[in-house]
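Appendix B, example 12.
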Amino acid sequence: MTRKKICYLLTFIAYFGMPIGIPFIKSTEPYILGLPFLLFWMVLWIFLGTGLMILVHRINPDAKEEVE
């Protein structure tokens, strides 16, 4: 798998991670770290999405800065 394909896959995961899980969450009953599960899911994906985008930026072959 090329670096570009890996970047596209990670971007796809970061973009759809939060909204895909929301319809499957039926209740707010389980609490994680004091947050209802749905809120925990959204906050988790904010951090995961940011981490994935940082990773994409580092491995993207087109994002190399030119030094003059």
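Helices lie at 3-21, 37-59. The chain has a mean pLDDT of 84.
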